[in-house]
Every structure is written in C-alpha cells, then in structure tokens.
Amino acid sequence: MVISVFTLGCKTNLYESGQIVAQLTKDGHDAFLGLKKADVFVLNTCAITQEAEKKSRQLVARARKLNPQCKVIVVGCASQKNSSQFVDIPNVTVVKGVANKIAVSQLVESMCVDVEAVPTVYQEHLNAVQERTRAFVKIQDGCNNFCSYCIVPYLRGRSRSRQICQIVEEVKQANSAETVIIGIDISQFGKDTGQSLAELFTALQGCKTRLRLGSLEASVVTDEVLQALSKLNFCPHFHLSLQSGCDSVLKRMNRKYTTEQYLEGVQKIRKYFPDASITTDVIVGFCGETEQEFEQTCQFVQKVGFADVHVFPYSPRQGTVSYNWQDLPAGVKTQRATQLGAIKQQLKRNFEQKFVGTTQSVLVEEQKNGFWQGYTKQYLRVYFQGNVQSGQIVEVKIAEPYLDGVKGEVVL
C-alpha cells in the first residue's frame, strides 16, 4: 500500500514521522515523507497555536484533493488535544494522539479512535528514516515547565529521557555530515533517569558527524556541559529560549530564570565559543505587558546581541493558565512585533558582518535560482556557486551580506 506521511510543527514531530515511515516500510508498505498522492495519508499534526490546529484540520482536505478515495490517519498533538474535531471529517479512518505513533502501521485497515495515555517513561526504540542533508536524533520527550502560555506539557506529558547508549547508536547509524540533537525540551534530559547532558556529550565524543543542538534553556548552560561540547565536532549555535527580557513578565510567564541568570549563560557560552551564534524566541504583548516592560525587552535583546530573534505576538491558547487573562489589543502586539523585528534585523546584519572575509565550513543543502545554499556551523545561511553536491561540507570564503544570509565563494 502506498502511504504518505506528512508533518506539521516541530523537528520532534518530523523525527517521529520518520519513525512512522520506518515502521510502515518494515511492515511492507511503500511509505514516504511528504504530501504526494497515496492510498493512505498519515498526518502528523501540531497544536502549539490555534492556527496550527486549524492547519491540521485543513490537511485532511489537501489529502482528499490528491486522492478522493484515500484513507486518512490523524496523529499527534492536535488529535491528542481534541480527537473529536477529526472524527466526522470525511475520509478520516483512524485518530491517534502523541503516544505510540508507529502503531498506525497496524491500524491502516482499521476505523477507530485510539488516543492512548501519554507514557511516563521513554518508550520509542525505532530509529527514524532520514531524508534530509542533516539527521535528527531525538533524546527526550515531554516537558515539566508548564509556562503559563504553553499547551505542550498538557499534550506531550512529563519529560522522559532516552538511554544514552541508544542515542549514540542512532547518531552513528545515521551516518550524516551533521546531526541535530532534538526533543521537546532537551534541557530536561536525564533528570528522570539519573543521566545528564554532559554525560551524553561525553559519550558522543567518538562520533565523526558535526553535532548541533536544538533549543536549550539557559539554566543548563554550565561549565561542565560547555567543556563536554568543546571536545566534540560541535556547531556553536545555541538557541536559548528567552520569551521576554523583562523579569516581571518572565515571572507571569512562569519562566524559571531572571534576565541576569540568562545573561550569565550567554557570557559562559562566549567564553568557550567566542564566535557562537546565539538565537532566541521572544513573545511580545504577553498579558499585561506595559510599554516599560516591552522597552526592557528591547534593551535586553540589544544587550545580549543575538544573531537572530524569532518574534511572536502573544496568542491566547485555550487550556493554558494565561488563557483567561486580560489580553492586549491586537494593534499593540503588532506594533511591538514590528519594533522588535527592526532590532532583530539590525542584530542579524551585525552578526553576519563579523564573518565577512573569513572562511567557513558549509553544509551544502539545495540549489535555487543559480545559487547553492547551505549553513555554517553557526547556522549562518550562505549562498554560493560551484561544483558541489547536496550533503557535502565545503569551505566557503564569505564575501558580503546577501538576502537573509551571506554570499561567498568556494575555496578550492
């Protein structure tokens, strides 16, 4: 049977889709990642925002257009949050949640709602099919933070960690030029099993692939962790989740650090990795955010000197603590997003300018509009021309800022 597996949402979802493809293929199906004509569509959904949940429902209609007679299996966070929203949609035959997604392989011929309880320990033991230039390896699932604006812990459950030996084995088997360590919150890795991030990074020291990390919390940026990373073929790009540069807003968000503690983490990173790219997420217009609080965020973002900032206007999410709190007018949130967005663009250009004249190792990804595109270890997008191949790492001399990154020439 021909089965399409399509993903909305985070890198963890993408990895889990790869696990679904691996299981379907093992069971004799012609399975692949991507939304193309098939007999069965497995839609791995997202519910981080209302818009993501809406897109998850719309995916079913997109599948029907490709094959009106298809069967649709819905899995993931949107169906975990509310399975009933998919039950009466034409062509939907199976609805599962976030647990045991690979079980859809046994449900292809079924009609059922099978939303299981989220497990309390890490239970996945199947490596994912990888179809990109970089491999993703999942090390944990779930989240214990319960930020006041976030629905994820209610859908994914508490943090649960994978065994280090399994992680190392998959990194080696992936055999890719670059591997990204991912999870719902990798900062919590090992807290339920007596392991630690430092132990994991130490165990990975024999791996040849260059290693990149998913999003981190500043609280886990310790000397022990950074020392272990410095002994790897490590990509010095740290995505440190901030959300606000104002302590009073952080407290309302139930974020468990202050701006001072966050800055200490940044300074430690730059001690070990002076050229590191430090990126972040910031929510503007959170409940009750005053002009003064927003200005503190703008000042803090500039003080840190991020390489990039992902700016999001606050969006109330039903089921979260802050859902019924007083929201700010949409116009205020839009204006603040625009203002912080301008700061982000200047910081991004400042960071890019630092690399002009230097030679960087670039992972080649794809060719568009006459240019190859790829990323440096610092996750700086580079445009260049040359006789190269996707998945190859080449040396590129950076010439100038260009579009959303920089332009360079391959060093022969």
Largest sheet: 6 strands, parallel
The CATH superfamily of the largest domain turns out to be tm_1862 like domain
Ends: how far apart? 47 Å
> Beta fraction of the residues?
25-35%
Radius of gyration using CA atoms only: 22 Å
Uncertain segments are none
Mass-distribution shape: globular
Could you name the CATH topology of the largest domain?
A: pyruvate-formate lyase- activating enzyme
The CATH class of the largest domain is Alpha Beta
How much helix, percentage-wise, in residues? 25-40%
Q: How many strand segments?
A: 18
Main β-sheet, spatial strand arrangement: 2-1-3-4-5-6
Number of helices: 12
Structural class: alpha/beta
Write structural notes for this entry.
The protein folds into 3 domains: 113 residues, 3-Layer(aba) Sandwich (Rossmann fold), CATH 3.40.50.12160; 218 residues, Alpha-Beta Horseshoe (pyruvate-formate lyase- activating enzyme); 52 residues, Nucleic acid-binding proteins (OB fold (Dihydrolipoamide Acetyltransferase, E2P), Beta Barrel), CATH 2.40.50.140. The longest helix is centred in the C-terminal third of the chain and has 24 residues. The strands form 4 sheets. Strands 2-1-3-4-5-6 form a 6-stranded parallel β-sheet, with helices on both faces. It has a 5-stranded mixed beta barrel with strand order 14-15-16-18-17. Strands 8-7-9-10 form a 4-stranded mixed β-sheet. With 412 residues, it is of the alpha/beta class. The protein is built from 12 helices and 18 strands. Helix content is 32%, strand content 25%. Helix 11 links the parallel strand 12 and strand 13. The radius of gyration is 22 Å and the shape is globular. The mean pLDDT is 96.
